[in-house]
Structure formats: structure tokens, C-alpha cells
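Supplementary Methods. Inverse-folding protocol.

Structures were first reduced to a C-alpha cell string of length 357. This string, shown here, constituted the complete conditioning input.
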């Protein structure tokens, strides 16, 4: 099992940790682990440093030692499928292939289609993926890898998250919107601010809280400037990072969770499942596997990426009709319980790993 583990905390690392800790999976399989992550903090991701190079070398030689001193039935690896991240992870996959057993690749990201015809990638991608089994989060993500991976070698396993107590929503007269992600433009931060400006101009009364980490793109100072420029000073506030119970509380006290992402490599955001789990109505976009989670008009609303006007209309629709808002929120809660619990995910992964080892 070669995969990134937290810290830092992000979707791929968290799903790996869930697998590592799963009693369902560990009862069936004997797993041996190598941490593929070379970053230990969010601000290290995407940056080069001697320390990260040392961690890479350390993990590579640990993998080599384990492969030469143990007899494994199969190799599992969760790699980045594009860009420099793929070049960093590919040696681990090729090393496993040298030992001749089945390679199972768990794909938590996308972007392969942009690289598949580029020098180096055009021969390295097929070399890594040939005859490997690939776990995808959604069939909607298959088109990204179809030039390299045969459909019969792909299998679907959606993410799931742990069951937590659904908190009672505290009563408040003014509807509350919530954005929960790092402050990145492609996650839709400015798109939501623009939509809030439209809503305020039409006379809607609401509060909008932004929760997440500051980034090099948008820090607190820039966020507050963007808020002031749109006249949203009394409507919108940046709360900062929240984790664990504090994050669950922020979600639970919200009426509408808005995630207007247009991130090109968006796949299967866990934050949408977290909102559904707390019975909060969700609005998001048609990126990646999101339309698999949200059936628009039933358990949430989907709007086109980057469409400020349609995002404002969707929020207004839920503000105008409290009964409809509560109905799709409850449908979202049922969707989570029926399809996206951690137990469901663990059972599916356990079956896949057992089948292909």
C-alpha cells in the first residue's frame, strides 16, 4: 500500500487514512504501508525543497526494501496522474511492476488527458497504467484516462466519510450561506462573492460565512478587500480554518452550503458529503463527479461553472422557498446515508482489493 497519508489533511490523504484504519479491510487483508506524501503542511504542496527530496528518496528506498524482503500478492498505489506529481509518483509504480504482481492504482485526481500527448508522458503514462487495475471515483472521470486505460480495467468506488452525529440546527431568523474550502479562486470564492452582490442588490437578507485556509492567491487581507469592493461588509465574513467538531458545527448551523468550484481537476469533493451529512441544502457545479452525488432539483442544485447569474438564481430559489430548501436538504441527508458512508466505501474497497490481488 503506497499512498499519501496526512498530514497535511486533504481528500486523497484522508481516504488513505480511512483505508489504513478500517477494521473491515484489515480483517480481510494484510496491508503493509509506505507513505507517498513528501509534504507535511499545506504550504509545502507544489513547492520544491531539499526536505521533500529527502522524503522522496526515503520513501522510494523503503518501498524497494519492502519489495525485496517480502512476498506480496498485489500492489496498491494512489498516485497523481498528471504533471510533476505524476513524474514524482511514477517511479514507485514502475518499481512495483518490476516485481511482476498485479498493480492497483487508486485515482483521486484527474488531468491525465492534458498530458497524454506531451513528450515523456506519452510513453510513461501507458507504461505505468498498462494492465493495471484503476479505481475511479466516478464513471464521469473515465474520459480523462480513456486514451491510456481500457474500460475493462477500470472499476468505480465513490468516496465515503465517517458517520457523525447530525447536530440540531440552531434557530436564526436570517438564512446562512456557507463556503467551506481553502481560499482559492478556482474553488469559486470570487464567484460566490459576486453572486452575493447580486442577491444583496435584489434586496435579499442573508449571512454568508467563508471557512477555510488562506492561500497565496487569497489571504485574509485580499478577501476583505474583495468583500468591501462589493459592499458586502455587513453580510459576508471570513471565519478562518475549522476542523473536527468546530467544522461540523459551522456546517450544521448553515442553511445552504455553496461550493461553486471550477477547479479543472475537481473529482469528488468530500465537503459536499459533509454538508449532506448535516442535512444542509447543497449548491455546486457540474465539475468532475459532482453530478453523480447531486441530482439537481432533488437532493441539491447544480449550476454551470463560473456562472454568477445562475448561481445567484439558485441561491435565491432556496431563499425564497424554505420548504423546498428543507426538502432537498433532507434528500441530501438520505443520499449520504444510502450511498456515501465510510462503511459503504470500506466494503467496496475491501471487495476490490480482494478480487484483484
Amino acid at each position: 500500500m503506497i499512498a499519501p497519508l496526512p498530514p497535511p489533511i486533504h481528500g486523497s490523504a484522508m481516504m488513505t487514512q480511512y483505508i489504513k484504519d478500517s477494521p473491515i479491510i484489515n480483517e480481510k487483508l494484510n496491508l503493509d504501508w509506505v507513505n507517498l506524501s513528501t509534504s507535511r503542511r499545506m504550504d509545502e504542496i507544489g513547492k520544491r525543497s531539499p526536505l521533500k527530496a529527502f522524503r522522496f528518496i526515503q520513501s522510494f528506498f523503503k518501498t524497494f526494501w519492502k519489495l525485496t524482503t517480502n512476498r506480496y500478492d498485489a500492489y496498491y498505489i494512489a498516485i497523481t496522474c498528471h504533471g510533476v506529481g505524476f513524474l514524482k509518483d511514477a517511479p514507485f509504480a514502475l518499481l512495483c511492476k518490476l516485481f511482476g504482481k498485479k498493480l492497483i492504482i487508486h485515482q483521486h485526481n484527474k488531468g491525465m488527458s492534458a498530458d497524454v500527448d506531451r513528450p515523456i508522458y506519452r510513453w510513461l503514462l501507458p507504461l505505468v497504467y498498462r494492465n493495471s487495475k484503476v479505481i475511479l471515483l466516478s464513471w464521469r472521470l473515465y474520459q480523462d484516462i480513456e486514451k491510456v486505460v481500457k474500460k475493462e480495467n477500470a472499476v468505480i468506488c465513490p468516496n465515503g466519510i465517517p458517520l457523525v452525529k447530525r447536530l440540531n440546527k440552531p434557530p436564526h431568523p436570517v438564512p446562512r450561506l456557507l463556503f467551506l474550502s481553502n481560499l482559492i479562486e478556482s474553488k469559486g470564492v470570487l464567484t460566490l462573492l459576486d453572486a452575493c452582490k447580486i442577491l444583496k442588490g435584489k434586496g435579499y437578507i442573508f449571512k454568508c460565512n467563508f471557512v477555510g485556509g488562506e492561500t497565496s492567491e487569497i489571504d485574509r487581507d485580499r478577501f476583505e478587500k474583495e468583500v468591501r469592493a462589493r459592499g458586502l461588509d455587513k453580510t459576508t465574513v471570513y471565519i478562518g480554518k475549522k476542523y473536527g467538531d468546530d467544522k461540523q458545527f459551522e456546517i450544521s448551523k448553515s442553511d445552504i452550503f455553496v461550493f461553486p468550484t471550477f477547479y479543472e481537476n475537481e473529482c469528488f469533493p468530500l465537503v459536499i458529503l459533509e454538508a449532506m451529512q448535516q442535512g444542509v441544502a447543497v449548491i455546486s457545479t457540474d465539475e468532475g463527479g459532482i453530478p453523480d452525488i447531486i441530482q439537481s432539483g432533488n437532493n441539491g442544485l447544480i449550476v454551470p461553472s463560473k456562472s454568477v447569474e445562475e448561481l445567484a438564481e439558485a441561491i435565491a430559489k432556496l431563499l425564497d422557498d424554505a420548504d423546498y430548501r428543507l426538502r432537498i436538504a433532507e434528500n441530501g441527508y438520505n443520499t449520504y446515508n444510502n450511498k456515501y458512508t465510510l462503511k459503504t466505501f470500506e466494503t467496496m474497497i475491501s471487495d476490490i482489493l480482494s478480487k484483484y490481488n
